[in-house]
Specification:
Strand content: 15-25%
Structural class: alpha+beta
Number of strands: 4
Largest sheet: 4 strands, mixed
Shape: elongated
């Protein structure tokens, strides 16, 4: 006898929340916090680590952007690896 077929899992509701004071944005899937992103590449990486393969994070129907779109990362520069340089 074949096992009963289960419907495919529903796609999670992924939310990229409004930027925090430092410009980072929390990423959640349903009630679960996946992590904090400081760049759109971080969002893609968090989803990949959660086994959520979203090919185009910016325009996917699965991702809801709150408080700003995929290009809104206030307070952060193009190269977000350089946190040391604040200037006098």
């Amino acid at each position: 006898m074949a096992p009963p077929t289960t419907p495919p899992p529903e796609h999670p509701h992924i939310v990229v929340h409004s930027p925090a004071l430092d410009g980072s944005r929390r990423v959640t899937s349903g009630a679960e916090t996946l992590g904090v992103a400081s760049h759109i590449d971080d969002v893609a990486e968090l989803l990949r680590l959660a086994d959520l393969y979203v090919t185009d994070v910016e325009s996917s129907d699965l991702v809801e952007w709150q408080g700003g779109g995929p290009e809104d990362w206030p307070g952060l520069h193009e190269h977000h690896g350089h946190h040391e340089h604040h200037g006098g």
